[in-house]
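Help wanted!
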Amino acid sequence: MAENQALERLLNILKASGADAWEVTDEEEKGWEFYLIRHRLDQNRVKDLESFWVKVYRKTDEFLGSAGASVPTDASDEEMKRIVAGLYEDAGYIRNPVYTLNRPEKDAPAETQEDVDIEAISGDFLRAVAALPETESEDLNSCEIFVSRKARRFLNSEGIDVTAVYPSSMVEAVVNARKDGHEIELYRLYECGTCDGDQLIRDLAETMRYGRDKLTAGATPALEKADVVLSTDAAREVYYYFIDRLNAATVYRGISDWKIGDMVAPENLSVQAVRFLPNSSRNTAFDDEGARIRDMALIENGKAVHYWGRRQFSQYLGMEDSFDASNFTVTGGTESAAAIRTGDYLEIVEFSDFQVDEITGDIAGEIRLGYLHRGGETVSVSGGSVSGSIMELMKDMRFSVESRQYDNLLIPAVTRLNGATVTGAE
Amino acid sequence: MNAPFSSYLAGIAPGLKELTALLRERFDYVSILSTDSVGFQTAISQRAKSVNRETMTTERGTVVRVYRDGLYSEAALTGFNPDKVRETAESITAELEAQFRLLKAAGVQPYETGKLPDEKRTIFAEMETERLPEQEDLAELVNRLSAISDRGMKEGEAQGIRMIDCNTRASSTHICKLFLTENQDLRQSYVYSEGVIMALVAGEDRTEMSYTAVSGRCGPELFDHMDEKLPEAIRIGKDLLAAEHVVPGEYDVITAPEVTGLIAHEAFGHGVEMDMFVKGRALGADYIGKRVGSDNVTMHEGALCAVDVTSYAFDDEGIPAGDVTEIENGILRAGICDALSALRLGTVPTGNGKRESFSHKAYTRMTNTMFDSGDSTLEEMIASIRKGYLLEGMQSGMEDPKHWGIQCIIDRGYEIIDGKLTGKIVSPLVMTGYVPDLLGSVSMVSRDREVFGAGACGKGHKEWVKVADGGPYLKAKVRLG
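Answered by r_m:
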């Protein structure tokens, strides 16, 4: 590991601070960014950033307090001492039940490093965007490309000292479709590790097709109740409902009342936290508190089997071996996507903003494009909204064997929610 | 007292001016924004407590903007060293040159833009505050928030509510920004604060979270009377547990000021961000001078049109704060604009160029987005509705400037039948519609108005900045689901 004098100064100050425990994260980011209007360059940017996040712990009576702050790398000794002393004082006001910090694992690698060539990845993205299958009526409106090499070193007073270097990329794209003087747009935000140009082109080609169909969409009829099929990124919210409600903090705070052993999901649905997903932007080996990330089942055949999350709340719930997971897979579908897409249903592929409330389970979203399949005919529709409660809808929820990946989440490609409320736009 | 300008920024300013001069030898325009903002956030509930010396806007860093051959480029960095200015200039130039080579190889041409003007300007603004976050007695504040949480539990249970928790959160940030060009030296320092009380309540088969907030361009003194919001948080929790689902359809509604603010924000906040005009992403570009609402609709946007969390002296591109009349008696008059978009559109910037942080790009962003007041009373407005709802509490919204669609998720609707509130409550509500239809249906506007600054706004699904919005009660016709 390269010598970092500012970090060494900070560590020395922490060791002399009187703190009962401490954690430090040294985060470095080198990034390149490109902002395109159509295919012309609006702006290019470079980033070279580093900062320390420090957390100081203090025991008071039977309680444990903590306080955190960002420490600039150019802070003087005096400023670092002032910040750390302030955190030590702040931690004295905070009284939480005692918990312990993560400790080094014998077989855990101290360093995981991927080769990250920002320039090469940037070139791949620029070439992919240039190769989009645009036509006279469907094309790229604008695009923002973010490519970063992130390095994260975590140290704590228990002796953990681990470093991860990984790529992190993001693309925001807006596509237009037009017909007879009328133009519409659709929005996409992709996060990933590096550039998978073929996948990006496929996704944006699909988006342009949706744009074309939206131009001819009629008003969504007032269906009252309908079987709603989700096959694009909105489906993530359905599965995040299950994942989030097993987060240790959510459970400990009473936001979720799910308990280990409860049936919390459809009986064939399983959710797993996984260390690695191909090209995920979150393939780090350890979490923000130095815990090693590994594969761990959260839900098995509908039954909650493990909480996940930060050390404090996991330990309060008796989960000594948990961690703050970053990638998830959802499996268990027994039907093909084609079998799910049968009968009458409304497949919604574009929402303004689809949400599932993690407290109430209420779902809501304005429909920007859907395909209404009724009596053997299919028409594209737009407007109106879908609503309901996931707690009710999951009783008859169907999901496909086939899967689709959205950055750090691999979920069934097609999800069907029978009996959702659909407010029309007619 | 006035919030003092950062001694750190004052200390590195000569070095940054030297950097400007060095880069000016290689580029036709150079500006530098450097930030040093400190603050705290504390969250207290029955189950967990935390304090951090960090908020969503605390930061320290520098962003350099340069211009050459029709193209603007930026470099964001931390740890500026005044003793190594030449090395910094070399490093920035080398990294940008590497990007230029890649762009050339990829055949990407610049979106040619003119050079920003650089007239002489000096601003030194240290805005008033009673207290500073960096000097706040956090022990006392933690005790006060704990007392609110304890009282919330007792009062909720006394009203027959099963209280799971009563969460309180307070944050305060002292913003300091320095903007430099060859001819400009702008410095500002101000404090904003925001606080939230949330009651987590349970019914027989459901759990709900209520939410009340305070905000202001002021110091932690904002939290001295935060307990006054507690009864409202408990009342909302009770209402949510009693709520039913709405029967989907079109209704006459009255929007409470926070819902009015959400409509302002989503309808003609995002709808007239003029960087979207440059990209051809906003219908508003074609509607300047045309009717977009009823005569009762007048809207303002700008850091100067209200005093709240984003009422600054100058924006992140060095443009002085403004107050734009966006809609005047239903006619769309103007949009809001960052500096580069103004150059491209041949108009003037309005002081709305904002960044999520120094390390992010500047976009056209909202500050305070407000409907003007009218001449009705809330009582008159309720009395005028045969069947509809009084809409209170906002959860979220989503813009669609290209098609003027609007989606607002509203917390609660209080039923009105024959001019009277019936006591029946519906929740949650998805309000959707076409913006000109919604604003065109505004038939009554109340005399009073409020501003709310406890939220944040993204552009698309990223670039989060502080914004405030609000207005009076509006009577309108909307679709609810």
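OP: Thanks! One thing I noticed: Residues 249-480 of chain B form one domain.
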